[in-house]
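Chain A, query sequence.
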Amino acid sequence: MADSNGTAKTAESRARGIRATGRRRKGPTRRRRALTITLCTLTSVVLLGGAGLGYVYFKLNGNLKGVDINAALGHDRPKAVDNGSMNILVMGSDSRAGKNGEYGKDEGAARSDTAMIVHVYKGHKKASVVSVPRDTMIKRPDCTTKDGKDVPGAQRAMFNTAFEVGGPACAVRTVESISNVRMNHFVEVDFTGFKKLIDALGGVDVTTSKAIDDDHSHLHLQPGKHTLNGEQSLGLVRTRHGVPGGDGSDLGRIQLQQTFIKALMNQVKNVGVLTNPTKLYDIADTATKAITTDTDLNSVSELAGLAKSLGGIGSENIDMVTLPVTYDPSNPDRVVPLEKKSGQVWDALRQDKEIPKSAIKGSAGDQGGTDKYVK
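Chain A, predicted structure.
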């Protein structure tokens, strides 16, 4: 049993987190926003409705970028289920190149700290979202980069290194290898687009039950109702120290981000963009500039079709969970999947069934505590 000093150090290092390269972070960064940016932008594109994207088809089509995931991965993949359900891997990119340089030093390859598998059920009336913590230790498969370079796999690697070393195709292959669930689509979002998207929407409404006071994320909110602008939204999805009851970890931050995403979805449905062509264009232009998709979605017409088919899914019809994990016994700054419970999650998605509550009971991933203080 560790002594009290050792326990304190463990808790402190767990809260700070470790870079994918193994080097300790020098301090809190804006990198955590990647998760929120990704799903937020996807959600906005989906919920704006097919008619909205079609309205500015020719102007917006040129904004989109595509990656041919199917060609990169070939046929050695889980079998696709042909019942109308679908799985979308949603990831955020924190490359510091170009305009992203204001958020930190450019160290080369982009990283993605968090990923979400969005499972849309047959009939497209409801969905489940599974968040995968960035520091989950997994077996990473062999990959090939978009430049044709072979990247050897690893027996023990942090989940987010797949995107770093091999890009979108490697991220998809890694998710499919650990889940045996076929990813039908891929969406990546550049995190600088998040703030612009929120501002274009006119802000996002949230309610805090207790004060949030975090100098690290520059967010200070009193209890009550708030309409958060882009900067404040970034602060909210970054904060882990300033929320009462939170455990100070990335796992707690994931819960906070999931809460924010549902608030964003409600906001998109309530801002009336479909009756305001100017606002509609601003939002669609911002969203399409921020995303990279697989080539099957790499056009406004394809996104419009997806939007139309999924437009009836509201926040109340989405079940958000974190992959069942526990702290790694050999390194408490990492987590490892709970094999049996994670298997229940993946089995549910393969069978197009709801994720059983028993699968997440006792998981460290859903005990962060931050979900109680923001609605």
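The first helix runs from residue 4 to 16. The radius of gyration is 19 Å.
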